[in-house]
Amino acid sequence: MGVRSRAQSPDDARTLERPSGPPSRRTALGELGAGLDAVRLLGAAPRLASAPRGDGHLVVDIPGWRAPELSGAPLRAYLRRLGYDARGWGFGTNTGDPRRDVERLSERLLRLVDAAGSPASLVGWSLGGVVAREVARRHPEAVRRVITYGTPVSGGAAHTTVARFFGPGSDDADRVTRRLDARSPIQVPLTVMFSRRDGIVSWQACIDHASPSAEHVEVFSTHLGMGVDPDVWSVVAGRLAQGRD
Predict the structure, then answer these.
(1) Contact in structure between 89 and 105 (CB atoms under 8 Å)
(2) Do 93 and 63 meet the contact criterion of CB atoms below 8 Å apart?
(3) Per-residue pLDDT reduced to its tens digit, 7-61
(4) 181: left (phi over 0), alpha (psi -120 to 50) or beta
(5) Helix 73-82 with 230-240: angle, nearest 10 deg
(6) Phi/psi of residue 189, nearest 5 degrees
(7) What does DSSP assign to residue 160?
(8) Contacts of 109 (CB under 8 A, 6+ apart)
(9) What are the φ and ψ backbone dihedral angles of 96, each rounded to 5 degrees?
(10) 59-111 pLDDT, tens per residue?
(11) Which distant-in-sequence residues (6+ apart) come within 8 Å of 90 by Cβ?
């Protein structure tokens, strides 16, 4: 019930199997129980309250595909209680145009970082994590670290249960990402959370085989429940407290 964390770090995530398609129908049906992940917050309250205090630096939270900015409000509220300047990305619902969103978030982030006088951390759920990764790739000097959960980093839309909604450009975007990973891998500290219970994005597609600084953490949440999973919150709080290595 959340009293103890179930998160764990695999010895070497890069040796895990590659994605071969979307999650199974059985796994996808498990998303119907996503609300139970929030229930675990009650049992986890003591350990979440004992997380390291924040240093006040800026944390930008980016929602997943078709998710409103409000979806990240509980996590942002928790991070603010810890002492971070946690904010939404500022563009409302993520409508699923990562190329546009990378451009506009880059512009906003540079303004915020210039005003703050120090780099920001980026936290992204699902497609929001894709945006966070690409912003960090473009502007490593402005990004302290990136934390993603349920984010596909390989295989594109072919390894999601909602592939038909992504449009014909999704495979092109994936090819561009692979070229960028080979030519210009992400250099900032990167924490990648994935779950074998993820019924929206194949967990294998979340494994980062290219970024030299990627750390992988396995959680046991549904995809839709990750934003209110106490283990996800605990990992986010712990990694934000580590600073920029």
Answers:
(1) yes
(2) yes
(3) 888 877 777 777 778 898 899 999 998 888 888 898 999 999 999 999 999 999 9
(4) alpha
(5) 40
(6) -55, 135
(7) B
(8) 60, 120, 122, 135, 139, 142, 143
(9) 95, 40
(10) 999 999 999 999 999 999 999 999 999 999 999 999 989 989 999 999 999 99
(11) 69, 108
The answer to whether the beta carbons of residues 208 and 153 sit under 8 Å apart is yes
**Kind and range of the H or E element at 88?**
strand 85-88
Q: What digits encode the pLDDT tens for the residues 183-239?
A: 788 999 999 999 999 999 999 999 998 888 899 999 999 999 999 999 999 999 999
Q: Find, among 67, 25, 94, the residue nearest to 224 by Cα.
A: 67
Give yes or no for a contact between 151 and 130, defined as CB atoms under 8 angstroms apart. yes
Quick one: which of 28, 4, 18, 11 has its CA closest to 198? Answer: 28
Residue with tokens 């619902």: 93
pTM of the model: 0.91
Q: Give the three-class secondary structure for 86.
A: strand
First to last CA, the chain: 33
Provide the residue ranges of all domains of the chain, joining segments of one domain with +: 13-49+57-240
Q: What is the number of other CB atoms lying within 10 angstroms of the CB of residue 56?
A: 12
Q: Any idea which fold 13-49+57-240 has?
A: Rossmann fold (3.40.50)
pLDDT over 50 (residue 115): yes
